[in-house]
Amino acid sequence: MPDKVRIRITVNGTRHDLLTEPRTLLADLLRNDLALAGTHLGCEQGVCGACTVLVDDVATRSCLVFAAQLDGASVRTVESLAGADGTLHPIQQAFTQEHGLQCGFCTPGMLMGACELLERVPEPDREDVEEALGGNLCRCTGYQNIVRSVCTAGRLMSEQQQSEQSGVRA
Amino acid sequence: MSIVEEPVTGTRRWVGQSVARKEDPKLLTGRAGYIGDVVLPGMLYGAVLKSPHAHAKIVSIDTSEAEALPGVVVVLTGAAAAELVDPMPAFCAEPVEQRAIAVDRVRYPGEAVAAVAATDRYTAEDACAKIRVEYELLPALVDPVAAMEPSATRVHETLDSNVVFHRSLDWGDVDGDLARAHTVVRAKARWHRMGAHPIETAGAVASWDPYGQSMTMYSNSNFINFLPWAFAGILRVSTNRLRMIPCTVGGSFGSKHLITKVVSITGALSKACGRPVQYLEDRTDNVAANDNVGCDRIYDAELALAEDGEMLGLVLRIIDDYGAYFQFAHGQHGNAVAQPVGPYRIGSLRYDVSCVLTNKVQQGFFRGAGADPGNFILERLVDKAALEMGIDRVELRRRNFIQPDQFPYKIPTGNIYDSGDYEAVLDRALEIAGLDRWREEQERLRAEGRYLGIGLASCQERSGYNASEWWFLYGDEAPLPATSTPESCKIDVDAMGGVRATIGCPLWGNSPETVVGQVVAEEFGIDPSSVSVAYADSTSGAISAGPGGSRVTIMLSGATRGAARTVKDKMIRVAAHAMEMDPEDVECVDGVFRAKGAPGTSMTMAEVGMRAHLFNDGTEGAESSGLVAVHTYDHPYFTPPTADRSDLGAFYPMVSHACHIPIVEVDPETGHVELRAYYVVNDCGTVMNPALVEGQVIGGIVQGIGAALMEEYRYGDADGKLETPTLREYLLPSMHEVPEIVLEHLETPSPFTEYGVKGAGEGGRLVAPTAIASAVDDALRPLGVWVDELPMTPERVVGMVADAQERR
Amino acid sequence: MKPAPFEYAAPRDLDEALDVLAEHGDDARVLAGGQSLVRMMNARQVSPAVVVDINRVRGLDALGVTNDNGSSTLSLGALVRQRTSELSGDVAAHAPLLAEAGAQVAHAPVRARGTVVGSVAFADPSAELPAALLALDGLVKVRSRAAERTVAADDFFTGPFRTSLAPDEMVVGVEVPVTAGRSGSAFVELTRRQGDLPVCGAAAVVGLGDDGRVAQARVALCGAHQRPVRLPAVESAVVGADDPSAFTEAAARAADGLDPIPSCHGSADFRRHLARVLTARALRTAVARATSPKETTHA
């Protein structure tokens, strides 16, 4: 067996210092070594996007990246979104409000892709959503409500930000 | 049958509302517990070596190198697995044996030839790569028509022919109708093989206890509370020592009803090493070998019409390519005869079906389950009749619709349609589509040399199947003539008044928790968010057929309402006893038990709960302690088939209906089809939860877009190798292919079901393919194109244009 | 679907990377964006003994225009991401074809990791970027421990997933000559599903003379042959043309001599048909854009 590779990686704000086989895919490191099962593998070919996570704030298919490549990187997964007290992130709130999910298997990938988009484009339109999430497959919803969810999330986040700002001013 | 008396919808508080989905928080946060998330102490990981060949003898298998790899615990060949598990249960009458791991011979590309359990999946795959298999190739049967030839190589030597099943049945005077018809329209059509392909593959975690000879099996199978004994049979475990535990399922669309191969392989690996083993199909396992394939049909059909366009009789001759095995018998044809005549008054039907075996993965079930190509061929015939007879396609449909006063309506095969108002649906669809505006746009674009098309289809969605559809096309030889398709719900109210429901169906991507919450809330007048819902494992006795055939909301409503009413009635008696009143005078309103019409003395849910749990005071009329009820709801309206099958009985009587109007633009040079707009009016009876129904319908339409344009299994003509083994070749629609879909509902409640609900799970996919086909040939009408094959890939569209030009 | 074991090397500079290649040759594969390589490794279609991850190699991410003796060159280093190239002002200004083709590659998250050079080195006969590079008369910059050489794109692609790269060499960048004058370009493709590899795609670059007629043309196809391919016969046939019907006529020869690789997405015959249709469209659009530079719609 080839030598293991040491990586220092931050996942959802927690620092890890790990030895990993070079061939371990990021998705498997998250699921098996770090017990973060929210990242799902749908095709292991980069086609479905279910395994999308953020690597240094960029939406990335975790089935097409070796963990060994990520020494020094910061990774965010679906587990980073909701609060420990059960408060859903506005993106998650929007998905439930607009019924943007059914079986939920593609949903973590959709949420993380949406997360990246909303950090770049605060109030996206349909075209923005299609560009960001067009490579994420969903077999249940027919996508219409996913697009709506992401657009709604943008509005919810802007509203939240505004109310926070006005709160600061007051 | 009993007709259910229902109050008008407006008087209900929770049924009919877009109540927030209970399932969402766990799904949104990555903690739903799919099969891949199940980790047991000491668990090993499985992988499967698949045959690259379509048809071959297995000459030898050498597993020694694989076994020598560090971390490899078990390597099982088919022969070794046969020592541990039995063949898969067969629902067919014919002698077609199927094992999860092939023994001696492989019959389709992707069939398992060995399985491995190792300390991790990577190592298990390393081991698979080191197994040496020597094959002796046999001729690969790819074309079903060629496979029917008596001289063709047989897929199974136990059969005399690859035509494993043939039956022709007439209902009504078919020959008479053909003879007296003014016009007989004939259409041939090809519906290619497609697969469900949920984003989550099938999987299982098996844990064999060699001391207790018992098995615990986690899986994403649906039938754990319906046919657990069938799994026990495969696994050679006593039925009362098998515990099957459901997981949240990442989509099924019919593909995960049984998943016997996965359960069998996982169970065999666990038995071989006495440790827990997880085996998840990877995508290539799923595409190549899961039983998720729908119909693969060649139609030769005729529709007989009178001079005024009255439809008289229908002839459907079908060759259906079933692939290499026949585990589920002629499933998908029992289904098709639930609604072969669509929404039309057609008096006679000839149904002639030949099921052919070839070297492809066997058919399973996929959303639509046989009624999908049925709708395709029927609506193609109607469009063709309109063209040939010079009658407007809308008018021709109107003239033949079953009328609202004709329900319940018995179709020639014997199935019953419960209710409907098809013309109202059609009218509303034409209205929201703004047909005139699109016709103008079509004219304008044609002047520019562009091809816009307006599609139209009016189709049925039969819902709520009875198990008789699995076997009634057989005669006496039917191996398991079952007639029950139950659904169960247990409701208990605890001492503090908390309500918990436990249901027998798993979470398949639909919303059973939400529906149960709505029904319980409706019955008790409490908030649905206060109801907790749990999933039963197979030891609960909560027999449930689960989702499938668009049944689960119908059946769960019945099961839940039954259990809720039993518990509520007891609570009324307990409260009445405590309040020293007659139970007849007590009612439950907003979760409070009080005197009818005189809200003075009352008891809360908690007060009644505590009383029922701890205060059986032994006086006369006191109730036994506890508040729990299990209700098993049977099919609401089933009648058995006659012995001669001249009447198949009522087996699929809750019939929804929809009209779809898609607008497409076609590029005849490249064959590209773009959907510009999509309009739908849907009638699925009482809408339980509008947001959820909309989700089901739109999701189904998008799968129908896939069926119309993209999705197809392809096997090499010469070698039978699978050319579409991943989602790079087998194409699912993406966000880019989907137009804005405008959807409205009309409601004609079912008289047979609780609240009047009908099914809505499959309708989108049942209608969209044929609607889009009609849109494409409407677009290409100036070029003389007639669509008779799905999916309409770019190459097929260009070919159809070229053929039409040649004919001219 | 998991990759076979391999040794992992993560060199910090180019010499170190070239040393690994010199040592392992055919047993090593260079990993840049990994959007194709890792997929194939997962499916065990390739199982290199050594993976050379060049993502930490300094100096490979440059994108810019250089002037030398009056001629300008746009160059992209081996770590320039497809998304960066697609959104780059320099690429838009000097090689709009590269941006247009690039925007049709897969999906934004894939392009964010995938590199332009990686796509060129991978040499998928169906991929957009190799065909675009051909139509742009691009050059491939190649290094080994021993030598450095520049290969014309047309000489670089030798077959399906095959190039003239030696086992110890790697592509360190691509260059595109920047041309002056009235020119236009277009990349058109047919995909089964947006973001998939095209069944067939056509890239055209045309230059107009003072008379408004086509003075130079370069046309290349993907998905239509064993490798991305230039169409010299079509190119010479359109020189002097100024009428859209002339482009269709010239494009009728687009499939002459081509040997397309059939797949489940299109037979060889269908790909030949598309070669003709898409070549005509690419030419019409390129000429329309050269004629009125604001023209952006497809013909």
Automatic annotation (TrEMBL), chain A:
A Pfam family per the record: Fer2_2
Protein's UniProt keywords contain Oxidoreductase: yes
Entry keyword annotation includes Cell inner membrane: no
Keywords: 2Fe-2S, Iron, Iron-sulfur, Metal-binding, Oxidoreductase
Species of provenance: Actinomycetospora chlora
Gene3D superfamilies reported for this sequence: 3.10.20.30, [2Fe-2S]-binding domain (1.10.150.120)
Name this polypeptide is given: (2Fe-2S)-binding protein
Classification via CDD domains: fer2
InterPro entries associated with the record: 2Fe-2S-bd, 2Fe-2S-bd_dom_sf, 2Fe-2S_ferredoxin-like_sf, 2Fe-2S_ferredoxin-type, 2Fe2S_fd_BS, Beta-grasp_dom_sf, Diverse_Oxidoreductases
Residues annotated as domain 2Fe-2S ferredoxin-type: 5-81
Automatic annotation (TrEMBL), chain B:
Keywords: Molybdenum, Oxidoreductase
Gene3D superfamilies (UniProt xref): Aldehyde oxidase/xanthine dehydrogenase, a/b hammerhead (3.90.1170.50), Aldehyde oxidase/xanthine dehydrogenase, molybdopterin binding domain (3.30.365.10)
Superkingdom of the source species: Bacteria
Ranges of residues in domain Aldehyde oxidase/xanthine dehydrogenase a/b hammerhead: 29-139
Keyword Cell cycle in annotation: no
One Pfam family hit: MoCoBD_2
PANTHER family in the cross-refs: ALDEHYDE OXIDASE 1-RELATED, XANTHINE DEHYDROGENASE
Protein name: Molybdopterin-dependent oxidoreductase
Organism per entry: Actinomycetospora chlora
UniProtKB/TrEMBL annotation, chain C:
SUPFAM superfamilies, per the entry: CO dehydrogenase flavoprotein C-terminal domain-like (SSF55447), FAD-binding/transporter-associated domain-like (SSF56176)
Limits of the FAD-binding PCMH-type domain: 1-181
A Pfam family annotated for this UniProt entry: FAD_binding_5
Keyword Flavoprotein in annotation: yes
Superkingdom per UniProt: Bacteria
Keywords: FAD, Flavoprotein, Oxidoreductase
Keyword Oxidoreductase assigned: yes
Record-linked PROSITE patterns: FAD_PCMH
Name of the featured protein: Xanthine dehydrogenase family protein subunit M
Organism annotation: Actinomycetospora chlora
Source taxonomy: Bacteria, Bacillati, Actinomycetota, Actinomycetes, Pseudonocardiales
